[in-house]
């Protein structure tokens, strides 16, 4: 039995410990994560999936009441998302699953659709953050919507337009609670103001997102020659580069993971979490607020290599590989 989201093959012993066919089915479908104790933790939906569902529901509700819509999320799965839609107006409350620290769980996304003569027009409105400065991937004033969820939103809207037989549509999306929730996030540190970001590399929220769950800790304790990844992008490229190794998603808990794992280890992922773990003051004096911004400058390579040299002295058994969002190696230390 394989997790269709992460590609992890669940051990038979874990499967036998799960006595609930309904929960096991969630794991088979990718909507849950099976742990070593037989417990299944439910994945939630990202802000991107929630936004796509609200927009699609608003269009479909132009002709009928809507209570659920299918959404093809970035990881390739099709999920059914609960909505409430009527007369071109729809809302969708974000489902957080079993991730305990999801500050956006329960947040309402509201979409309003109006037929147009041609084209598909998506208008991000109130409560969706915008960038207050230029970044390597966004310009000042751009809505804080990552490429994968934006593609999911537009595809969902196109499906609804075709289903309705419309020539075009305009959908305005707003998140009334967005400005308040944003104060509980790190958005201001990355230059996003006025609301929350619409994110989601896979479309699903992992239940352990930023901490080590029991099953991950146990995997680390018995793993040899493991690859530790800090996020979903790193996980994807690590699986491509090291298909025969144990790949473990550890989030930001790098110190705990390094203490738990044995043998030769590869620490793999985007630069930000790893470099700031090695040197929390890495941005001091650079004039940049994020590692991503700093990485686009000529001085980054020298600082990165010096930081990796320092790390190697403390963790001689750990190889570090830093990649960009396209999977290319930015820096490494054998």
List the helices and strands and how they pair.
Layout: H1 12-17, H2 21-29, E1 32-34, E2 40-42, E3 44-45, H3 47-60, E4 66-72, E5 78-86, E6 89-93, E7 108-116, E8 119-124, E9 127-128, E10 130-131, H4 147-164, E11 168-174, H5 178-182, E12 192-193, E13 195-196, E14 204-205, H6 214-222, E15 227-229, H7 232-241, E16 247-249, H8 254-260, E17 265-269, H9 271-278, H10 291-295, H11 300-314, E18 318-323, E19 329-333
Helix pairs in contact: 3-4
Report the span from N to C terminus: 34 Å
For the secondary structure, the number of strands is 19
Order of helices and strands: HHEEEHEEEEEEEHEHEEEHEHEHEHHHEE
Q: Which second-level CATH architecture of the largest domain applies?
A: 2-Layer Sandwich
Short description:
The protein has 11 helices and 19 strands. The chain has helices spanning 12-17, 21-29, 47-60, 147-164, 178-182, 214-222, 232-241, 254-260, 271-278, 291-295, 300-314, and strands at residues 32-34, 40-42, 44-45, 66-72, 78-86, 89-93, 108-116, 119-124, 127-128, 130-131, 168-174, 192-193, 195-196, 204-205, 227-229, 247-249, 265-269, 318-323, 329-333.
What does this structure look like?
- The protein is of the alpha/beta class and 334 residues long.
- The protein folds into three domains: 12-42, no CATH class; 45-204, 2-Layer Sandwich (CbiD-like), CATH 3.30.2110.10; 210-333, 3-Layer(aba) Sandwich (Rossmann fold).
- It is 32% helix and 25% strand.
- It contains eleven helices and 19 strands.
- It has helices at residues 12-17, 21-29, 47-60, 147-164, 178-182, 214-222, 232-241, 254-260, 271-278, 291-295, 300-314, and strands at residues 32-34, 40-42, 44-45, 66-72, 78-86, 89-93, 108-116, 119-124, 127-128, 130-131, 168-174, 192-193, 195-196, 204-205, 227-229, 247-249, 265-269, 318-323, 329-333.
- Strands 4-5-6-7-11-8 form a six-stranded mixed beta sheet, with helices on one face. It has a five-stranded mixed beta sheet with strand order 16-15-17-18-19, with helices on both faces.
- A hairpin with a 2-residue loop joins strand 5 and strand 6 (89-93).
- Helix 3 (47-60) runs parallel beside helix 4 (147-164).
- The longest helix has 18 residues, at 147-164.
- It is globular and about 65 Å long.
- The two termini are 34 Å apart.
- Residues 209-213 have low confidence and may be disordered.
